[in-house]
TrEMBL record:
<feature type="domain" description="GmrSD restriction endonucleases N-terminal">
    <location>
        <begin position="19"/>
        <end position="282"/>
    </location>
</feature>
<dbReference type="InterPro" id="IPR011089">
    <property type="entry name" value="GmrSD_C"/>
</dbReference>
<dbReference type="Pfam" id="PF07510">
    <property type="entry name" value="GmrSD_C"/>
</dbReference>
<protein>
    <submittedName>
        <fullName>DUF262 domain-containing protein</fullName>
    </submittedName>
</protein>
<feature type="domain" description="GmrSD restriction endonucleases C-terminal">
    <location>
        <begin position="519"/>
        <end position="595"/>
    </location>
</feature>
<dbReference type="InterPro" id="IPR004919">
    <property type="entry name" value="GmrSD_N"/>
</dbReference>
<dbReference type="Pfam" id="PF03235">
    <property type="entry name" value="GmrSD_N"/>
</dbReference>
């Protein structure tokens, strides 16, 4: 039976192999911010209470830590019992014995943290403010570490120390020193520092404590002496309560949470909130203990363990149900995770993915390695790992599709698969629907390039996915006009391409990822050590690069000038953004200093922008800024478009779009044979208005609405057309939705003869049963057909209309 109060040193050893307490493997990195860790230790040394822990009893007599993991992490970090003072430590805690009280802080004891993201530590204040670029540069010079080495190879935290500290010692040497006597405490610390002086760069050459060191350590002795008697309490949930909760409650098991789940969910309302992913992973650890070790090991290089485990469960469940449903298993809650563990067949399938034999890697590890190979990871010109992890994090349904492809041993070209993944990841509007459409189509028709290409074309038509243009086409979207009131959204025919342009031009997650991909050679070379799988390193202040405005923000936003609003449009265009080292950007600040860009012009797609800080006052310079920004935006997108060509060049051989195109071409052939003038149109939209555009490229066949139209109305100013218009709908089995009737001709202008046409419609409406008269913006007379028609039927109907209104 575990005592209900433990010393700090005992708690620090809970992660050891022989401990009776088991720590949940959330691996959230240092989810507690450094300030929380530092202030916790200040509280401990001052004798403040730090709260209790909650444990649950398990069947083997051990205990599971349910609440207090971050406090445990901070305590173990101080005692150095998590990973030891060795290369690979994620963080090190230090005691600055010489730092006096500073302004803007409430501390009495200066515990300082260094981390992989901030090996120089933090500022001397309660907020643990980040250091300036000049301080970081000076720190690296003192450590003898170059910035390239830091981010390309990583850093051993033993070679660094808190830059703002005056006299830092590793905290664990003070915590492990005997406290029976004051002199013994000081002497032990001195011996530890001398014996381990080669372990830490700041201790090299250390011989003995100075008189001033000894005096300061004696002043600290009472605080460390009281730790010997310090006990932290914990509450425990007995096994009887856990096992008997459901039965005692009299609630059917199928509709209830276990006591562990209820308590853990309630605890989540206190302190640092735990994500739903982590709550689910706590259930996975409890009900699937066999997979924990391998799941954590594999996930370390890819994504959070909770994300990976959920993908595996969804894959296993989808394999089981593939004959019954045409969509992937959705993410599961804790109840479903518990139920899966009771299914012997499914459990065996999951365990096979994690199984390792004779030192061989698990099936799961080989699957993820294959996905990396498709993306060219870790080649210098391959996808940066941060983008792969971003795909797994932000597009889990897509990553599940990739895992399914590996599991099913599909025979597809790597360029096709990577192009498909990049296209869907960056341009999806409804990823789940797209992935389920592709998955279901492949189950029905097979995993071939033509089938997948056809399914994706259907996804565009169903408005799940944005259609693409080439970089060359993007350049021709508009001619930039230098006018105070001109905007991209006012360009001629902008609704044709605006949804696409909005996704690739203005700063959002997709455009930033496209920028990183375009700069992949630079990112892979200079930031190879950046670990995107660690959630704490995703925070902007912990990322080694910044997204810099090439033409500084203050040159536009901080100015007046006649062209300020015009320039604002281009300021945040991705063509004016580059990913450059954090320190370079902070040093550059709002200055027009482009020397770094000149030195890396090819990798950063940089071309000099000859403008000055007062460009908002100059029509000429505002125009140059717009032109150069648009050109660079097209170049960045061009790199990404080229990466998708392996997929885009494949020819769809099935699907609704293919069927519709076939019918339209049959109509086209019949009209040609009859000598009829006809045209193809599609409907484009910018989110505010819709209008017809000529269908001129292959991708246009994937538009939601397609029309085959014959110009008519010579009697009525020649501004009308009889049209066969069709859209694809998710619920239709094949192509079975048409609209036929009389419409205004695209761009026809004012309806000069509207009254005459209306009169004619009244005269002939009896000849067209089933047609509705419409005063709307699209149809003057329309009939909706939902049965399947042949091309001959459509042509007959069009000719009948043309005869009346020709």
């Amino acid at each position: 039976m575990l005592e209900h109060a433990c010393s700090l040193e005992t708690i620090s050893r809970w992660a050891s192999i022989d401990s009776k307490v088991r720590i949940p493997a959330f691996q959230r990195g240092l989810v507690w911010k450094p300030r929380q860790v530092e202030l916790l230790w200040d509280s401990i040394l001052r004798g403040f209470p730090i709260g209790s822990f909650v444990l649950s009893e398990e069947a083997d007599g051990c205990y599971y830590l349910m609440d207090g993991q971050q406090r445990f992490n901070a305590i173990a970090l101080g005692y150095d019992t998590l990973s030891g003072a060795k290369e690979g430590s994620d963080a090190v805690l230090w005691m600055d014995i010489a730092l006096d009280a500073a302004d803007r802080n409430t501390r009495k004891f200066w515990i300082k943290a260094t981390t992989l993201a901030h090996p120089w530590g933090y500022g001397n204040d309660d907020e643990c403010s980040t250091l300036s670029a000049s301080q970081r540069r000076e720190a690296l010079e003192k450590y003898g570490i170059s910035e390239d080495e830091l981010y390309a190879k990583g850093v051993d935290l033993r070679k660094t120390y808190p830059f703002c500290a005056k006299r830092p010692f590793p905290l664990h040497y003070l915590l492990h020193a005997p406290v029976d006597t004051e002199e013994g405490f000081v002497e032990s610390i001195g011996n530890s520092l001398r014996e381990n002086k080669e372990s830490y760069a700041c201790l090299r050459g250390f011989d003995r404590l100075s008189p001033e060191d000894c005096s300061r350590l004696r002043a600290l002795y009472p605080a460390f002496r009281q730790l010997k008697d310090c006990r932290v309490t914990f509450s425990s949930l007995s096994k009887n309560v856990v096992d008997g909760e459901l039965k005692d409650a009299g609630v059917p098991e199928a509709s209830s949470m276990t006591a562990l789940e209820v308590l853990f969910t309630r605890l989540n309302t206190q302190g640092t909130r735990i994500s739903q992913d982590d709550l689910r992973y706590s259930a996975i650890k409890a009900y699937w203990p066999e997979i924990k070790e391998e799941n954590d090991r594999v996930a370390a290089c890819y994504m959070s363990p909770s994300k990976l485990a959920m993908l595996v469960f969804r894959l296993a469940k989808s394999v089981e149900e593939k004959n019954d449903k045409l969509g992937f298993q959705a993410e599961m809650d804790i109840w479903h995770i518990r139920r899966l563990a009771q299914d012997p067949e499914l459990k065996a399938r999951v365990l096979r993915m994690y199984e390792t034999r004779n030192g061989d890697e698990s099936l799961l590890a080989s699957m993820l390695r294959q996905i990396d190979a498709w993306f060219g990871i870790p080649a210098p010109d391959g996808m940066p790992r941060v983008l792969r992890t971003g795909m797994a994090t932000h597009s889990p349904d897509l990553y599940l599709l990739l895992m399914w492809m590996v599991y099913s041993k599909v025979d597809l070209k790597p360029g096709f698969i990577s192009g498909l993944a990049l296209y869907l990841h960056w341009f999806a509007k409804d990823m789940r629907k797209i992935v389920n459409l592709v998955y279901g189509r492949c189950l029905q028709q097979g995993f071939t390039e033509g089938v997948i290409r056809g399914a994706v074309a259907d996804a565009v038509s169903l408005d799940y996915l944005i259609g693409l243009y080439s970089a060359a086409e993007m350049k021709r979207f508009f001619e930039i006009k230098v006018s105070r009131d001109w905007r991209v959204g006012k360009a001629e025919e902008h609704s044709r391409w605006y949804a696409f342009y909005e996704r690739v031009a203005w700063q959002n997650r997709a455009t930033r990822e496209m920028l990183i991909y375009a700069q992949r050679k630079y990112i892979n070379k200079h930031f190879m050590a950046y670990d995107p799988a660690r959630r704490d390193l995703w925070a902007e202040q912990n990322r080694p690069w910044d997204f810099d405005h090439i033409v500084p923000q203050n040159w536009v936003s901080g100015q007046r000038g006649e062209y300020r609003e015009y320039c604002k449009v281009w300021l945040n265009n991705i063509g004016n953004i580059a990913a450059i080292p954090f320190s370079v950007n902070r040093e550059k600040s709002d200055k027009g200093d482009w020397e770094f860009y000149r030195q890396n012009a090819e990798d950063l797609f940089f071309e000099e922008v000859p403008v000055r800080p007062d460009l908002t006052f100059s029509q000429a310079e505002a125009g140059i800024f717009a032109e150069k920004t648009h050109e660079r935006c097209c170049r960045i997108y061009g790199e990404c478009y080229d990466a998708m060509l392996g997929f885009l060049n494949a020819v769809p051989d099935s699907g609704k779009v293919v069927s519709r195109k076939g019918i339209c071409q049959d109509v086209q052939k019949a009209l040609k044979e009859k000598g009829r003038d006809f045209r193809f149109y599609f409907v484009g939209s910018d989110g505010r208005e819709e209008r017809d555009y000529a269908l001129i490229q292959e991708e246009d066949w994937s538009r939601t609405w397609i029309s085959v139209a014959m110009p008519v109305g010579g009697k009525y100013d020649g501004k009308y057309m009889v049209s066969f218009t069709t859209s694809l709908r998710e619920e239709d089995d094949g192509l079975a939705y048409y609209e036929l009737g009389l419409r205004r001709f695209p761009g026809a202008g004012a309806w000069k003869s509207k009254d005459a046409v209306r009169t004619k419609l009244e005269e002939v409406k009896d000849k067209f049963p089933g047609y509705e008269m419409d005063e709307g913006s699209w149809w003057l007379m329309c009939r909706i057909r939902t049965e399947k028609l042949q091309a001959a039927d459509i042509v007959c109907e069009l000719e009948k209309l043309a005869e009346v209104f020709g």
